[in-house]
Amino acid sequence: MELEQLRIFVAVAESGSFTKAAKKLYISHSTTSRAVTALETELSLRLFDRGNKVTGLTAAGELLLKEGRELLSKAEELEKKLENLKLEGQKK
User: Fold this and answer.
1) Residue pLDDT, tens place only, 11-35
2) Is residue 51 predicted with pLDDT exceeding 90?
3) 24: which residues sit within 8 A by CB, 6+ positions away?
4) CA end-to-end span of the chain, whole Å?
5) Which of 10, 20, 82, 89 fits 15 for a cystine, CB–CB 3.0-4.6 Å?
6) Is the dihedral of CA 8, 11, 14, 20 positive or negative?
7) Is 57 exposed, middle or buried (0-12, 13-18, 19+ CB in 10 A)?
8) CA count, 13 A, side-chain hemisphere, 63
9) What pTM value is reported for the model?
10) How many Cβ atoms sit within 10 Å of the Cβ of residue 78?
């Protein structure tokens, strides 16, 4: 599982739409769809109940959304800390 796939999954889950998520992330609908499909394939789990539109999350999708948000938050914190460390090193 890649962080970018997780970011895309969270965006789709929060917006309820692959199209809306794609617009929010400034990527194509097909990229959004492929990322979620690849994630589902890798996990061997369906994350969304699908019809013509995303209709909701499966139990696995609910768990991934909850834990995924936390993981993305931690990854962003780590990136900020590393950036600050790099900036401090440049001041010396």
Assistant:
1) 999 999 999 999 999 999 999 999 9
2) no
3) 11, 15
4) 37
5) 20
6) negative
7) buried
8) 7
9) 0.88
10) 10
